[in-house]
Amino acid sequence: MWRDWFTFSRQDRRAIILLAVLIIVALMLLWAKPMWHREEVTVSLGTDSVAMRLALPSSQQPIVKIELRPFNPNTADSLELLSVGFPPRVARNILRYRKAGGEFRRSEDLARIYGLHDSVFTRIMPYIAIPKPAGFIKEKLLTDESEPLPIMLSSDTMQREHPYAEYMRAKHKSGQFVDLNRADTSELMKIPGIGPVYAKMIVDYRERLGGYHNIVQLRDLEVLPEDLGDWVHVSTPPTAILNVNNLSLTQLRSHPYLSFYQAKAIVELRKREGHIRSVRQLLFLDEFSESDIERLTPYLSFD
Question: Residue 38: pLDDT above 80?
Fold first, then answer.
């Protein structure tokens, strides 16, 4: 009789196998459960939060409000460096440089930190406050107001000048402007924050447009520095004109402000109505909005 307890039919064996599989799957899910939920990390930004703030992945890094104000790069902690606008990677490099014994004697010395973009340094530079070292203390008071103040330069300061100082001397000063439609790449590179790549990008886009009619058009090139408008202006109108009655679909499509479907709509309108007389006719096409017409108008000709 006891054998009946250990004898299973085919249906019983299938049920036992299915139950065993379900148990194994349940155990595997329980084992893998901790991997489904990423443990939340709470960060307390204290006096100096170097390790905690900069070691976290970008998705877990707390938001630090950027507020430009005077700071000393030789004493500022990670939180202060981040709050004046330094990217986390650059802030980490500054702290590593100081830990290795490095010291910033002048504002320009900060420019040699790896990863610091020219545009970021140009924006932050006016707020760098480095106390004068002992070598710069005046040794005597002036007896004559017209006599220049004697300044003792340290030997290290006299021996070399940071390359960024020479770089900035070649740049335009505040109040100097560059004409977007006349400047070549070398002239554009005199703008602080603009190197050969950005300069070529501006010239190439100007050729595709047929010339700039407003500095706002630089926003189309999203990677350019935000303060570029402080250094440029447009004094000459665009030189190239789009003759909507003569150009082919391919020629119309080559302009940055015309899509394939808009160019095709113009060609089909010419076939239906013949000569296009004004820009108002394009407003009746579904492919064009009022904003499209507004930015296209300086480049259109209906001769």
Answer: no
Q: Which residues of 67-106 are buried (b: 16+ CB within 10 A; e: fewer)?
A: eeeebebeebbbbbbbbbbbebebbbbbbebeeeeeebbe
Query: What CATH number does residue 273 fall under?
Result: 1.10.150
**Regarding beta strands 300-301 and 242-243, do their DSSP bridges make them parallel or antiparallel, or are they unpaired?**
parallel
Q: How many domains does one find in the chain? A: 3
What distance in Å separates the CA atoms of residue 125 and residue 106, rounded to the nearest whole number? 10
192, β-bridge pairs: none
165 shares its domain with 185: no
pTM of the model: 0.47
The domain spanning residue 74 has which CATH number? 1.10.150.320
Model confidence pLDDT, tens digit, residues 248-262? 999 999 999 999 999
Residues of the domain holding 110? 67-134+160-170
Q: Is residue 142 part of a domain?
A: no
Given CA atoms 73, 78, 84, 86 in this order, what sign does their dihedral have? Answer: positive
Q: What is the pLDDT of residue 56?
A: 52
pLDDT of residue 52: 52
DSSP 157-214: HHH---HHHHHHHTSPPTT--EETTT--HHHHTTSTT--HHHHHHHHHHHHHHTS-S-
Q: What is the mean pLDDT of residues 37-54?
A: 45
